[in-house]
Amino acid sequence: MAARGDGTLSSTEFYLAASAFSDQWRKFNASSSQWKWVPCHRRPLTSINQEEGYLSSENVVLPTSIEEVRCEDDVGENDECSCSEDCFIDDAVLIQNGDSMRRQRLYDLHIVYSASYMVPVLFFRGYYSDGQPLLLDDIRKDLSANMTELLTESQWTFITQEEHPLLNRPWFTLHPCGTSDWMKLLRSHDNYLTSWFSLVGQVFGLKLPLEMLK
Questions:
Q1: Which of 56, 164, 161 is nearest to 107 (CA)?
Q2: Catalytic positions
Q3: For position 56, what pLDDT does the model report?
Q4: How far is CA 26 from the centre of its chain?
Q5: How far is CA 64 from each of CA 12, 131, 205, rounded to the nearest angstrom?
Q6: Reported pTM
Q7: In the β-sheet with 119-128, what is the strand arrangement from edge to edge?
Q8: Calpha distance 109→63 (Å, rounded)
Q9: Is it the case that residue 34 has pLDDT exceeding 80?
């Protein structure tokens, strides 16, 4: 489902794009955390034809989080982290070492349709393996380098904490105010969400399989 000329899409178009996106992700990225459609009860004033729900991928371990957990205990001030045998041995230790497991950072990612902006919005929360929630400073450690710089410059503009519109709990979100503007320029694929995620996923170092971009 391609973007309209104004960079937005309807709720029905969002549902169709979400279904196609999750199917393609499952086909070409079977070894990663999967995206699935989670249906919700229709809210008041919602059109009877509107599919109410969101795309969800949970217990996601980000690439930057994996590298930090592997090396943070073993790297001294002047040491370099190399993916040698020690790093792979540490993977097994993580299963048994409670302190290391606590440092494992996990994310729940939800792609929700915004009726106000008529674009997808990424809601997310992070937590350690023991359930302790991540604060914004913790989350910053998992952002890609260029996104960390942007977040520092505009701390509560780029990422905000708002009530999840379908779960009614506070989640972090990437504010969608400029989404339609850059989606007007980013029409590299027939599926709106594929083009959208090719940019938004970079925030957390998540990349689309090349097959999805063809």
A1: 56
A2: 177
A3: 98
A4: 16
A5: 35, 19, 7
A6: 0.79
A7: 36-39, 53-60, 105-114, 119-128, 170-174, 159-163
A8: 15
A9: yes
